[in-house]
Amino acid sequence: xxxxxxxxxxxxxxxxxxxxxxxxxxxxxxxxxxxxxxxxxxxxxxxxxxxxxxxxxxxxxxxxxxxxxxxxxxxxxxxxxxxxxxxxxxxxxxxxxxxxxxxxxxxxxxxxxxxxxxxxxxxxxxxxxxxxxxxxxxxxxxxxxxxxxxxxxxxxxxxxxxxxxxxxxxxxxxxxxxxxxxxxxxxxxxxxxxxxxxxxxxxxxxxxxxxxxxxxxxxxxxxxxxxxxxxxxxxxxxxxxxxxxxxxxxxxxxxxxxxxxxxxxxxxxxxxxxxxxxxxxxxxxxxxxxxxxxxx
Length: 296
Hints:
The protein is an alpha/beta fold. 40% of the residues lie in helices and 15% in strands. It has a single domain, classed as TIM Barrel, CATH 3.20.20.140. Keywords: Hydrolase, Metal-binding.
């Protein structure tokens, strides 16, 4: 049976994760090859027991995506995985992107949405993670954004982006809108890697969603400041445009390898939000209701 790759609305959703990714050759670091099936499967079982039903898996082509790995995880752990199609950012593009037309890139994405990924029954449910470089959208990245817009308009699947260190989110949104995408079908990723409230407010004002999706990466930006930004968004009644995740990408992020593990968001960060005055309704909004509306 073909996987429809839609959200199970009964539980929580991590909106931006990786279950199998391999950037090790690019970064010359084996830690960047996340592929330890047994450890990841156990962490998924833990999440299911904590009320998490869905993982939106952001690994697209040429990032080390592995559709069979995801199908096996769904079978063995009970987690529902939403797979991605697209291209990441310029530094990781294969050489052919430079001389492939926008239409051809769009057709590739649409094939993975409508037919399946690499001959498997797994179909992409989101166009992601469509990325830009730090402080710039390169010409090839602009081409991929255009292709993502076409694929979205022809399939209805939403677009989830990668910003490098929380830069260029507004520019990404403007580019997608220029190509006919409704802002409500876009979520801007990695908005929580610096003091970014002004840009976040402007994106939400236009109707886009934003992700606080590097939770637990305190060496980039402390969780206390993530909580402070979310408090302000709560006070302004804007949490209906926010989704949460951890963007786990490394072996060292897994609990068995000494990292926070996937359950950190539920077991550590959610209590921080409660202590900061956020209500259970608001937590459910970010972790259940918003992803269900956006990804379905």
